[in-house]
Amino acid sequence: MRAVPNWAVATAAAAPLLLVSGWTVAAARQPAGYDPIRDTISELAGQDATDAWIMVVALVLLGCCYLSVAAVLHAAGLPSRFLLAVGGMATITLVAFPRPPVGGSLSHGVAATVAVLALALWPAGSALRLPRGHDAAHPARPEPPWAFRRAVGLSATVVLLALFGWCAFEVTGGSRTGLAERVTAVAVSLWPLLAVLSARRAHLAWSVGAAAPGDTAAVVPPDPLRPTRRPDRLA
Description:
The protein has helices at 6-28, 53-72, 78-93, 106-129, 150-173, 177-210. The protein is mainly alpha-helical. Helix 1 (6-28) packs antiparallel against helix 2 (53-72).
């Protein structure tokens, strides 16, 4: 099992902090008419925003956080890591298509949709890679880390997709677009941190169990982050 480096934990923890601090500082620089409940985060990095560079930097660093976690979170599996990386790249791409002063931007909307959907779907991918929980066919194998258990990962994706639906509703005709967008953005930024902490805890428990000082014949416990091989039905 590959260890989760300390810097990955710090990077994952920095993602929601960068997001919240970025929009808080940027909103404070806007004219009195800006309403964080009604107005979107994108307006803080828009063409007519005051000190738009604040939110631009925050979004770029946020995307880099997602890319960094995707690079080292091997326990999630390649499909989920790919989705997380896509979410990071789409987040960075947002700054290349700033929202215009009047009307909307198709490119900006597509980038935002791809970012949120990718970040909402990646927990389900890692959950489907591992067993649902305790493997009856292999009773000695421990349960996978809680963040990667099928019920947990699928539930996280359902919640995140529901928040995405709320955002879509508010954009098309609601009055709380900014609130919906902020709640969704924080939710998707928290799951990489929870996944990293879960994988790190599982690795520490596995490494302690695998270490048997003075006993060279000790049996190494199974890796909780490795998918269980299904028994051969022809055997």
